[in-house]
User: Fold these one by one.
Assistant:
Number 1:
Amino acid sequence: MPLNFLSTPIDYLAGIGPERAKLLRSELHIHTYGDLANLFPNRYIDKTKYYKINQLVPDSAQVQILGKIINIKTAGSGKSERLVATFADETGRMELVWFRSQKHFRDSLKINEPYVAFGKVARYGSQYNIAHPDLELLVDHKSRKQSAMTPVYPSTEMLAKRKVTNTYIVKCMRKLFSEINGAFVETLPDDMREHYKLIGKNEAMLNVHFPTTPELLKHSIYRLKFEELFFIQMELLLQNRIRKTKIRGYVFDNVGDKFTDFYKNHLPFELTGAQKRVVKEIRADMGTGAHMNRLLQGDVGSGKTIVAVLTALLALDNGFQACIMAPTEILAQQHYSGVSELLEGTGITVSLLTGSVKTKARRTIHEELEDGTLDILIGTHALIEDKVKFKNLGVAIVDEQHRFGVAQRAKLWKKNELPPHVLVMTATPIPRTLAMSLYGDLDISVIDELPPGRKEIKTVHRYDKNRLAVFGFIRDEIALGRQIYMVYPLIEESEKLDYKDLQDGYDSIVREFPLPKYKVSIVHGRMKPEDKDYEMNRFVNGETQIMVATTVIEVGVNVPNASVMIIESAERFGLSQLHQLRGRVGRGGDQSYCILMTGHKLSANSKTRLDTMVATTDGFKIAEVDLKLRGPGDLMGTQQSGVMDLRLADIVKDNHILAIAREAAQKLLAKDVKIEKPEHAGVKRVMSFLQNKKGLWKYIS
Ligand code: ADP
Ligand code: MG
């Protein structure tokens, strides 16, 4: 059989004429034999099972029933005219109904002969029926070799309309496999298949379409998913390796005075084990001569700032400058005051550059940056303006990366002869295996430990009718000197309504908590930046006790004295957002609380989100639930990595296979990094194909 057999145009398959070939091309992207073979079923119908009529329930889906037709009649008239057969078994009666081809069926149906009827069950009144059933005489049914499970292939509206039915596709598939069975080239090495108990390519391909047993089907799907994930991992690991060898970075092998002095004399607390490990990883990275591009994941409050400072000091010790970029003015300001405080007495110079820095001060910053008197620059997007020129930027630290695009990061690179090392910090945790497979171009460090002495934030779910009790609680907390956040949803589509809710909420809070005893701040996205900052600062400085806000406060704001986070219409927030918001409290030594307010009607999905929040404060656990609820589609970067093109595997549900496939890829590369051993020829072929940026499955066939 010639190797390119699978690339035979689909028109050549017996039974597929030019018309249908065209449909298959346009609707399902099936151009060749190989493409058709790689059209995988969405699901299977178990035809090993027969239902009794008295076992049917309204949503029985597709069922198979053994019985006899005892009566045929025409019912209705005009458009609703239909042929109705009464179908009976020993447990009851139901109806089989035809709207089309009535004459044909009236003439051909046999009374009192055993039939097997198959189809989707519906119920009208007390009567079950199947419209246009697949109907087969029991004798024929028995004589035909049955495969246990019938595949159901993806379809489209157009295909259904043009009568390219599932039965037709199954027929084509049968024809195809009678011609090409055994044509698939094994892609995975023998030892790997043995070690991970993976069945062969040909067996898997045949059984995924025509499973002989449920067991074999399971093994086939596993094998094919493994293969898919394995090659994606191979590609990511190789890309990462290429980046490390090709993109040079400054060598920071000098751990000098500034780092050591700070570590010995200015560190305000002992680093946690996780912080130490991460700093070590960063140091190792920046010392190699390769370019660092590292993602630092750490839950809110896990202490990323100190890691950023230590990273900056490593650059300084090697004669370079550092910058820290934050997504908002408020955050940049907080970083600036936090970092300045940490570095007090060290002689290291730090400046803040944001949109609101006045021209004169700005000019000074520009000058000091260019002549190298300024060590660390902290700021917002203002940092990547063209006028900002570093003398020698050694490391760029980017906080809360999901607000920064790749393009913006690339802009930072242009300021140097070599790209500065990049450390991206995020408080949006992603399960580790998933993160590793999504961000092929990033290395990952995780702070998975909170500083000691933190009190767990108590989280409760309350309904709107409990509002008075909640107000009472707020009063008590304020009496203890604490501050309160009250957050309202802001969703673009209903922006106007949201602002009305926010305003109403604010009005009622002001009524409940009147001047002069209480002072309430309000912050939202429609305010001018300076008004926003003014209000925010009043709250930060403790001048107001309650902050009513939209999600603008979501990211990073640090007010250790705030102990209560009330989230209004909590059912409208996503899990990661709820988690971020909750992270605004629990930053001081006091017991903190998060109250999730909702109305009475909750969807199952909302309920799961709320329950999860109440049950755990572990950001990684929350991220996992979130992924299961939303799927990975929303995660940043997934489009770039090609992961979304997965045919069979589901990056979330098949996470365990992913981890194993990654391990297999790592092992293979450890043995044979150039993929040149003869036993890896199959792997090599797929990889060189992938490098030409063709779809994975085009080749794997
Ligand atoms: P995030 O990861 O959210 O940016 P921060 O860096 O703002 O967290 O740290 C949160 C708080 O925890 C800060 O007040 C910081 O001073 C404190 N902190 C960080 N690391 C430690 C530690 N190892 N021991 C005690 N407190 C720490
Ligand atoms: Mg932070």
Note: Confidence is low (pLDDT under 50) at residues 635-644.
Number 2:
Amino acid sequence: MAVRTSASGKVLASLIPGDGIGPECVASATRIIEAAGVKIEWEHCEAGEGVFKKGIPSGVPQETIDSIGRTRLVFKGPLGTPIGYGEKSANVTLRKLFETYANIRPVRELPGIPTPYAGRNIDLVVVRENVEDLYAGIEHMQTPEVAQCLKLISRKGCEKIVRVAFELARAEGRRKVACASKSNIMKMTEGMLKRTFEAVAKEYPDIESSHVIIDNCAHQLVKKPEQFDVIVTTNMNGDIISDLTSALIGGLGFAPSANLGNEVAIFEAVHGSAPKYAGKNVINPTAVILTGVLMLRHIGQLEAAQKIEHAVLATLEEGKVKTGDVVGYDKCTSTSAYTDEIIKNLGKRSAKFQVRDYKPIRLPELPAGPGFVKARSVRIAGFDYFCQSFLLPDRLGPTVERAIEGSPVKLKMISNRGTKVYPSAGAITDCNDQYRCRLMARDPGADLSDSDIIDVLQRLGSTVRWMHLEKLQEIDGEAGFTKAQGED
Ligand code: NAP
């Protein structure tokens, strides 16, 4: 990412103070950044609660989008999504609008922060895919009874995030990258990350690579977190385990985060707006200060980044000032006094805690636009007919079979929430009104045309109400769809 500068040579950055505790944390961090001698020109922008309340449903006004388009660099506080305004998080909107596909969430044991893990030298980074997965938020009510959320995972998205994880490991002198996925259950989507990881890992023989199932990863993180170095994972898994990893080192008050894209980078802490602490000058700003360190490193201001990181470590080690999440909010140092102490300590170093040597991360440059993977052949072997019916499976099955008699397809099976219920194999399934009928070409090698499918819709649609169709594709001879539970 090329750094944009003002006419006077200062680094340009868009500054979004955010909601709740955001403005206090951001003010603390920007004071420290400026005191460390960084020449930076902030473009002050708005997003979040105030913007929703002005009637802008995205929570992000055009002026903010324009500013980010100019600066390509954002430092922000957390944004709240007020109940009753808008339906999308303004944070997610910002991350997605600017394709910041890599969410970097480092956690490291800090001096003087008592946790059950103190002394075990936790120092790991969660690299979370940031724009795909269930967080694309593509949701529908399939029937009044059943809601659906589409989990979209692309090969290019996987390749980008996996490469970032390996590049980050190299840039930070780390030795291991673990891919955490639920590929044992979701073979197409989560499996895409695992397969891509295994392919890309071959290009990084200097880095040890392994795979861990995400639920075991959560278990291992609580049991023996020091075994991890870099963990790469999908969006929702990463969101959850990075809150978990924050807790290992003292909580969200200490957990920084960066959203990196090839064009734009957005720096914000892991935590949210914690409204109950807003405006009280008691909140722990460390996460946002360390987020500032990540930003400075990203823009190549490595010396200033080191200086601030050393000052934070030295301040915590001295133990003269204590944050509310550590000692309780009735006896803590105020946010502003804590900030003053760090500024006083700029130039000091911790006696015991080292700061890593960092190099800038080399972000992957993959071809833009569609067509990253091109198939040699695609055949439509059938289609899944998602429908609403109040019949039980033993009546629905024959009804569907009668309606499609003489059509190019036959009924292979019916499932209810992924479990095969027709033909019955004796499963005990509490069915609801949304079924999937798997209709396969009668001729097993046939490639169904759209007019074949429309013919079936016309025959079946008047009997069993459909709301969604999914073509069953064979891509390069491989099934591009999974079986239902219990389907042979
Ligand atoms: P949250 O704001 O992160 O707060 C959850 C809890 O974490 C707080 O109650 C507090 O724990 C602790 N905490 C958070 N920040 C802290 C800090 N700087 N220092 C010390 N402790 C801190 O999560 P939430 O309550 O679920 O969400 C509140 C709002 O923030 C929601 O509107 C949500 O959508 C939004 N949010 C925004 C972002 C973002 O902008 N990136 C991220 C997450 C959530 P104790 O109660 O134990 O003291």
Note: The two ends are 50 Å apart (CA to CA).
Number 3:
Amino acid sequence: MTDTSIPTTIAPQVLLVNHFKTLKLPTFAREYEKVGNECARDDVDYARYLLRLCELESIDRERRNTERRIRLAKFPVTKSLDTFDFAAIPGLNKPLVLELMRGEWIDKRENIIALGPSGVGKTHVALALGLAACQKGMSVSFTTAAALVHELMEARDEKRLRTLQKQLTNVKLLIIDELGYVPFTAVGAELLFEVFSRRYEHAATLVTSNLPFDEWTSVLGSERLTVALLDRLTHHAHILEMNGESYRLTASKKRQKQTVQTKSIEKEDARPI
Ligand code: ADP
Ligand code: MG
């Protein structure tokens, strides 16, 4: 017969913390004494005591998981719509962006293509959508088109292309930023095409580009490949037209104007009366 009694030499607190560790319940370990004291003070029964601990653990676990997904997504910075000024880009379909923040398009394996010149907030919106997806429990990966192609070429040379392709296929949301700035070699374009092809109707992809569709051949090289890629990408896609002035440029122009105005007020103030 096995002896299941608690060894009297070891304090139950030590054993408890060991069990919590093994069972991966860090919040239980941290909170059980404090919550226990509170429950004893308030005359709360055992079931409710346990319930409180379970709720705390669940909330904490969700937060830890979200933080892990955000880390794995490799966002260059974290941005949300809280800091996005829709008034600065009136052409952008705000109701559509807000709807997309709910993340149903990702469940439906649809795509988003954000198009517009430099500085209009394409990356900002892509980051906000990526962050929202992480918070909704979805795996996300953020990269630029150039970095992705570079990574694919490197993986191919090091004979680990299959593994990378699998990872790129399975992530729930793949964000490919800045397609259009750097042209690819024929091999690079083929490898990129394969990523889109594998993800087609399998998982959601978000692409941002400074180029209108009819100029994508200039970075992908081949007309045939561009047509095939666009065919897959645009089949179930939401297009975010982001035509407007560069936010950075507008902001710096505003700052300059303010400085000039302040200087002329200062000059007027300095005039002898
Ligand atoms: P793009 O990717 O289109 O080149 P970014 O998203 O990188 O543009 O935007 C450039 C900078 O301006 C970023 O710091 C971004 O946060 C900011 N920005 C752009 N548009 C807006 C906006 N409408 N409201 C607030 N910040 C914006
Ligand atoms: Mg950008």
Note: The chain has two domains: 7-57, 81-249.
Number 4:
Amino acid sequence: MSHTLSADLEFWFVQHADRMQRELFEFLRIPSVSARTEHAADVRRAAEFLQRSLETIGCDVEIVETPGHPVVLAEWRRAGPHAPTYLVYGHYDVQPAEPLDLWETPPFEPAVRGGRLYARGSVDDKGQLYLHIKAIEAILAVRGGLPVNIVLVAEGEEEVGSENLADFVRSNADRLACDGVVVSDSSMFAPGIPSILSSLRGLAYFQIDVEGPTVDLHSGSYGGAVVNPATALARILASLHDDARRVAIPGFYDSVRPWPETVLREMRALPFDDGTFLGETGAPALGGEDGFTTLERIWTRPTCEVNGLLSGYTGEGAKTVLPSRAMAKVSCRLVPAQYPEEIGRLMRAHVESVAPPEVRVTVTELHGGKPWRAELGGPLFDAGCKALEAAFGRAPVIVGEGGSIPVVEVFESILNAPVLLMGFGLPGENAHAPNEWISVENYERGMRAVACLWTTLG
Ligand code: BES
Ligand code: MN
Ligand code: MN
């Protein structure tokens, strides 16, 4: 074990632990739900909270307006023009907390139970963003300065598709110029096993609307003579997969590139157990595309999922109607080199080709993001490995990821800088669900890992 966190920083972290937790609680109490207009003022309050936190530790901070929620842009550049510059990205917006009655303690009243800090945003991503700020604070407090320049970008629209962030990055590309980007908005493979991501899936999100008669009809008087929009939609949705559970949209797999053998080998060496994973889901059995393991299905294969369905009578008892309309939310997770625009074109063409002519079918593209694959080498990656080893007492594993962080590909392509994804969540953390939590131990170790990263890179 060659790497450990230096004693001065460790001492500071222990001394300031209580205060830092109080501050994090204050941040988590702000219901910064980006999807809800009634929370717009709260989203802004969270941005202002970050501004104060970052100014207090010695950064120059600007709240940059966008057509949506603001971006917090903080800079610490006193390492000078010859030192490297790194960009830290995180998001301060959170998912809606509903259904509220399933939370054991209220979503915006942070509570610690059994080594877990429960709150909406604790792990996704306010907690993970905040630990970066505290790591910077520690080094500035103890050493008087950082050996690297830091630009921190905190977004308020990640959970609603980062609609304005690509423009922000493009129009501020000079100011965001850097030697690498660090993101903590993901999870570790298992407790005690620090992890670096080798990939993220992309996303293409659609709404499919099927319209038939102008109003719900009596299913006795009209049924059999008017095509039912719910049935038409069900048939469209059923046509999205074949019997081997492959996506049946023609051309869907055409641009999928083979996965690097080295990454596949690392994946197969991971201690993954289908039974444990099944237990986490509570489903009766696992299932997916024929010919692939569970990790391969989640990390390396594209998918098409129905996210929601709406049609007809769903209340108590029976009501004999032929619904006037039906709607589905459908999203595809993408792998390199599938792009959302192309998948959108294929989806539209497929739905048009199977839709019956007696109903009106429209496909609307909601949001999307490109997939991403890491380089897994270079000074930032090497320093990340060392820092994680110092904080967790063992070297990190390389893992894939089924989720999406669209801005990662945007940073890499516009700033032409490598991205390091080291997250501190855990399986079962309930991100986007009731009772979201972050492991207090991971939060503490994560903070130390980030401090170690910056001192190592200096
Ligand atoms: N932090 C997640 C992405 C993520 C999920 C990373 C799971 C690691 C594990 C992010 O906040 C998120 O939820 N992304 C959305 C995409 C976005 C376009 C709404 C997702 O993956 O659904
Ligand atoms: Mn997130
Ligand atoms: Mn999220």
Note: The longest strand covers residues 202-211.
